[in-house]
Amino acid sequence: MTKNPDRTPLTRDFFARDVLEVAPDLLGRTLVRREAAGTIELRLTEVEAYAGEIDPGSHAFRGRTARNSVMFGPPGHTYVYFTYGMWHCLNLVCGPDGHASGVLLRAGEINVGAHLARDRRISARNDKELAKGPARLATALDVDRDLNGSDLFGGPTPALSILHGTPPSRDLVRSGPRTGVGGDGAHQPWRFWIEGDPTVSPYRAHAPRRRPSRKAT
């Protein structure tokens, strides 16, 4: 457990920068999730950057839709999407207003409220696995589409917010290809993680889905 993290809130200006600046700078920051059941605090250890209209791996690559509209800003909001018919993933919108980009929160270390996360992640073998992967992170924090578009700076006690935390030293920050991204966006080294942290998820290359062959009749 990380001791004595800086509890100074980040500002909206932090997110109003290029996504490739924001993403690695989110490592070590404290994500706070507030709800009726209690509060969870998580130190971010792994993230991925998605650069909107110039990024074939981004949901916004082909322009604005009803699904991705929150990605176009303003910065400092959340983009939550549903995938594979069963999982939610949490992203933080960044960059200038009107230009879509965001950071997928892939993994973290839960330092406060682990008992709440355990109730939702009953398959986790230990606390290091509670938020080890983007779907696990969202499940542990009880994040779903109801939080899509939530403002990190929406009043004194927003549902989600970010504190300064304890950023790692630069020599511990690593980057590499994004997990599960195929096509022209497969090789961008836009996944960032803290080297040696046990909560970081394993890298998996994109595996194209195979359609079952039709048998001749």
Task: Describe the protein in words.
- The protein is α+β, with helices and mostly antiparallel strands and 217 residues long.
- It has helices at 12-15, 19-25, 114-120, 134-140, and strands spanning 6-9, 30-35, 38-50, 78-83, 87-93, 102-112, 160-165, 173-176, 191-194.
- 43% of the residues are buried.
- It is built from four helices and nine strands; from the N terminus they run βααβββββααβββ.
Task: List the main descriptive attributes of the protein structure presented here.
217 residues, alpha+beta, nine-stranded antiparallel β-sheet, 9 strands, MPG, Formyl_transferase-like_C_sf, EC 3.2.2.-
The tally of beta strands, per DSSP, is 9
Q: Name the quaternary structure.
A: single chain
Average predicted local confidence, pLDDT:
93
* Overall 3D form: globular
| Rg, Cα atoms, Å | 17 Å
**Class per helix and strand makeup:** alpha+beta
Number of distinct helices:
4
How far apart are the first and last residues' alpha carbons, in Å?
61 Å
Stretches where pLDDT is under 50 for at least 5 consecutive residues are none
Helical residue percent band? 10-25%
Helix-strand topology string = EHHEEEEEHHEEE
Strand proportion = 25-35%
Main pleated-sheet profile: 9 strands, antiparallel
Protein name: Putative 3-methyladenine DNA glycosylase
Region (Disordered): 163-217
Pfam family, one: Pur_DNA_glyco
Biased composition (Basic residues): 206-217
